[in-house]
Amino acid sequence: MTRPPDEATIEQIAEKARSRYQTAEEMVTSAIREAVLAGVYQPGERLPQEQLGAALGVSRIPVRAALRQLEAEGLVVLEPHRGATVRVLEAADIDEIYQLRILLETFMIRSVISLVTAEEIDELESIAADLDHLDEGPGWLALRERFYERLYAFAKRPLTAELIGKLRADVGRYWLGLRLVDHEAGGHGVIVEAIRKRDPEAAEAWLTEHLTEVSSELQRRVAERNPQ
Amino acid sequence: MTRPPDEATIEQIAEKARSRYQTAEEMVTSAIREAVLAGVYQPGERLPQEQLGAALGVSRIPVRAALRQLEAEGLVVLEPHRGATVRVLEAADIDEIYQLRILLETFMIRSVISLVTAEEIDELESIAADLDHLDEGPGWLALRERFYERLYAFAKRPLTAELIGKLRADVGRYWLGLRLVDHEAGGHGVIVEAIRKRDPEAAEAWLTEHLTEVSSELQRRVAERNPQ
DNA sequence: TGGATTCAGATTGTATCCAATATACAAGAG
DNA sequence: CTCTTGTATATTGGATACAATCTGAATCCA
To answer: Of A69-78, A177-186, B45-54, which gets the smallest average pLDDT?
Structure first.
């Protein structure tokens, strides 16, 4: 069985073809999610089904399914006969979400520290290093996303990891234009170091401080945008 | 696969729900949810859209919307072009969910203790007393639901309370036929007492012990039903 | 004036129909 | 006999069409 050495395999071709989504629902869900996270639609803004469908080249049926899913993720709010709007987070919501994240993520980091292998720590360190000498931008944010995704995967708690991801997405769209505190602060090397030393207190402290700082900043910005 | 000893059909559940909801989507969502929680559909069982729609007197469109929502709640699993099945929880899933509940509920009880008023404690005590001299059954379960709903409402953390509710629903359908441990143990008066004394350690300890016990029991039952 | 009301337009909710995909089973090749 | 391949059937995905509901502005009446 001879095989062309450096040509693409059928699996690779198939994967590329499959990366364009299987169903319209998936494509539409992903598109609307990205649009909301990118700030194309602002908090409180309406999301008319007809318009979204026209923009994406589908009917309202897959749009409705997508909106239901995004409602579950906490990004939009659906009201009967009144349609969907981008969910508005008040300062109290942001406060609560970040308190939840602190609780969950400090819990998770303990699992990570007790389960992660040396090779996996190397992988984290490599990503952290890239983060440190890359400039801010979409690529940086994607890499940061990957860092935490890998980090929490090592905890072997898939449901908890998924939950944390949802909470992060909920507040993600309020990050727009926020100066990335941890980037300036020298960043993710700190927590990788704590993990390598198997020091849960240090890791928890870093996470708590970091999340608290971001939470305060976001709450301040929301409060000054909606002055009572 | 024996069906659980309850006489409920999806039609009967639908009849009860029909008047309460504005749209068919809401009614169908509620009906399927209750049917799954009541064990009418067992874990792993398929949920054909056509059959559900026929049973509930609607087309497949609202059924599909309902299934999407229930997927978000964690009760069913949707796969493209393959339809919906009742989500199957392995022992590891139950373990993780209960660990999450312990983390979240012990966190919540501290908020409750620092915010709850004397009158609110009286209300809880009244419900707990009713729970103690009522017999097990649907009414008892509903009252128990109400106890925790009220309890966690006092924490002023609506998102966290909602999350706990979802996690409880996720595992709720595995309770079928489980002897109610806390009921035998004399029950909810203990935690009310701890709240009245503003003793978070005692409240946390009771919650942790109770949840751990139920978790072990459920995991044991799941494991012996699906022997490796 | 001001409040309720009515009536159009816009938007969402649902049913029906058709297309796309998966599943099960039969038939054929090796 | 086993594995593949073709085909029929069932089920899901999606588009169109129509019904129900909301919104807002003009109108009516006190």
So the answer is: A177-186
Decide if B134 contacts B127 (C-beta within 8 A).
Answer: no
In what order do the strands lie in the sheet containing A83-86?
A46-47, A83-86, A76-79
The reported pLDDT for the residue numbered B3 is 42
**Min CA distance, A29 vs chain B (Å)?**
12
Query: How far is A22 from chain B, CA to nearest CA, in Å?
Result: 8
**What is the percent of chain A where pLDDT is above 70?**
86
- Whole-angstrom Cα distance, residue A84 to residue A163? 23
Band of the pLDDT at B21, cuts 50, 70, 90? confident
Strand C reaches within 7 A of the A54 CB: no
| CATH fold for the domain made of B91-225 | Four Helix Bundle (Hemerythrin (Met), subunit A) (1.20.120)
Q: Label residue A195 exposed, middle or buried (CB < 10 Å: 0-12, 13-18, 19+).
A: buried
Which residues on chain B are in Cβ contact (under 8 Å) with A101?
Answer: none
